[in-house]
Amino acid sequence: MDRFPQQILRSRRLPALIVGLTLAVFGVSIYFGTLHLRKKVQAQIVRRDADILYAVALMQQLNQQEESQLGDEIENVADQLNVALQISQLKGVIATRLFDAQGNFTFAFPAYVPAAALTAADLPELKRLKPGSRFYPRASLAPFLFMPASQKKTAPLLEVNIPIHRKEQSQLLGVAQFIIDGENIASEFLALDRSLLLQGAAVFVVGAFIIVVILMGAFRRLQTAGQLVLERTEKLVRANEELALAARTSAVGAVTAHLIHRLSNPLSGLQDFVTNRGGDAQMDWDDAAATADEMQRLIADIIRLLGEEQMIDRYEISFTELAELIGNRVEMISEKAGVHFTTVVNTAGMLANREGSLTALILENLVRNAIEATPSGKKVCLLMRTDADNLICEVRDEGSGIPETLRGALFTPCRSRKLGGHGIGLAICKQLANHLGASLELKTSDESGSIFALTVPTLSEERLLASGDSSR
Questions:
Q1: Which candidate, 355, 358, 329, 353, places its Cα nearest to that of 343?
Q2: Looking at the structure, do residues 315 and 178 belong to the same domain, yes or no?
Q3: Using CB atoms within 10 A as the burial measure, which of 95, 174, 410, 463 is most buried?
Q4: Residues of the chain falling short of pLDDT 50
Q5: Contact 135/124 with Cβ under 8 angstroms?
Q6: Backbone φ and ψ of 409, nearest 5°
Q7: Are 353 and 316 in contact (CB under 8 A)?
Q8: What is the H or E stretch that residue 326 is in?
Q9: Residue 252, pLDDT score
Q10: Could you tell me if 86 and 106 are in contact, meaning their C-beta atoms sit under 8 angstroms apart?
Q11: pTM of the model
């Protein structure tokens, strides 16, 4: 199992971190949403006075026409001024300016109000007969209250621009600009800010409570489920290891039983020979002793392998160590036969101890057979190399080769290429290779020698590490 997900699920800081990040995102969203709403509401409040004054201007124009106070031509500056002055009498109006249809300054009231010009952004909207307004939170009062500029007194002011035109026509005839005390608007802005602050705080508190409850509950259930999965996974891993060990032990036991059953025939033949001996007694006794030694050695190897299968500890053995182990086991027999034995390891890698034990048993039998088939003074070589995910072991001898008549049943018991042999060794090697999931074959054989090839599946480095972690 990967330890990183386990640490995440078991971390006590993770719920607080996730909840904190969620609340931060939620708070930022409320903040920017409140700012956007504040901007829109403020724009509506500022534009509200412009719409009201525009309606008042149209009403004043109509009333003055009915009372004959307005001339027939609203295009005249005097008539426009008359309308503007009537509106300027409204509460809060500090100053009034009048502009022509091109935005040029024409008149101001009171007279000391300085001339000004319409901004390039306001004039296009006014030509479409749309009133406009602009709020200044801290505007200088000196130009409008006839006071020295050095006093630098400031106050909130509202600037409202009203288009002047005939009611039934859409042509702009002039513009009336009103400078209005903005204390009421500033108070509305302040009340708006307080209201939005309270609403935003209430939404955040309620939303944060819901988020915390939901996320903490969900994370608690997730941790419980994750912990349950981890516990069940650990149990499954242990059960799988026990089943694998039991299956491996059972399989080796089955192989052993099969091999022991195959040994019964040569043992029976040996018993018959001992009972009904004849001919050259000394030669027959030597052959019987050699056969008995061979079977005793094979049985001892199987018992040793079974003992290793019962071991709990697991470890890895390198290819070089495997070659050295085989060399040590056949050193005496090669010296006695006068055959030079060498190992060549052209690759680096590892095998688990159980697979390595089976591989060593197979190769030891193959090397022993090769040494016995090789004349004195010749060579036997064990070559190891890798191909993809397989370890390829080749045992090469310089014997006279295997007769064609024996190659078809080479791995069948009681079929041997050696004089007086019973073919037990190769049969056992084949059975052990099948149990290992490997393949054993005669690659080549002629008068210059034979080559047996054993192909063993290997473990990659990642699988070896995982195997080591699971065993611990």
A1: 329
A2: no
A3: 174
A4: 1-2, 4, 69-72, 312, 415, 419-422, 461-472
A5: no
A6: -120, 40
A7: yes
A8: helix 319-337
A9: 55
A10: no
A11: 0.45
Q: How far does CA 432 lie from the centroid of its chain?
A: 43
The alpha carbon dihedral of 311, 383, 391, 438 has a sign of: negative
User: 158, 176, 201: which is the final residue of a domain?
Assistant: 201
Structure confidence at residue 260 (pLDDT): 56
What tens digit of pLDDT does each residue of 271-312 get? Answer: 555 555 555 555 556 666 666 666 666 666 665 655 555 554
H-state helical runs in 178-280: 183-275
Supply the CATH number for residue 36's domain: 3.30.450.20
Q: Does residue 379 sit in helix, strand or coil? A: strand
Strand, coil or helix: 164? strand
Output the six-digit token pair for 347: 């690759």
Q: How far apart are CA 214 and CA 15, in angstroms?
A: 11
33 with 171, same domain: the answer is: yes
Helix (H, G, I), strand (E, B) or coil at 144: helix
* Domain membership flag for residue 246: no
The candidate with the shortest Cα–Cα distance to 109, out of 177, 203, 49, is: 177
350 contacts 317 by C-beta, under 8 angstroms? yes
Are 17 and 122 contained in the same domain?
Answer: yes
Quote the pLDDT of residue 340. Answer: 94
Of the chain, the percentage scoring pLDDT greater than 90 comes to 20
Asked whether 177 and 97 are in contact (CB, 8 A), the reply is: yes
303 and 444 belong to one structural domain: yes
User: Is the alpha carbon torsion for 68, 103, 159, 162 positive or negative?
Assistant: positive
366 three-state secondary structure: helix
What order of strands is seen across the sheet that includes strand 390-396? Answer: 340-345, 379-387, 390-396, 449-457, 439-446
Give the number of domains in the chain: 2
| Within-domain flag for 362 | yes
pLDDT digits (tens, 9 = 90+) for 369-384: 899 889 999 999 999 9
Answer whether residue 396 is part of any domain. yes
Domain end position, chosen among 201, 219, 242: 201
Residues 6+ apart with CB under 8 A from 408: none
Residues 195 and 308 in one domain: no
For 399, the domain range is 277-471
Give the model's pLDDT for residue 470. Answer: 43
Tokens 């995440």 correspond to 8
Do residues 339 and 462 both lie within one domain? yes
How many Å apart are CA 161 and CA 120, to the nearest integer?
Answer: 13
Local structure of residue 159 (DSSP, 8 states): E
Is the preceding peptide bond at 131 cis, omega within 30 degrees of 0? Answer: no
CATH code for position 457: 3.30.565.10
Q: Are residues 182 and 293 in the same domain?
A: no
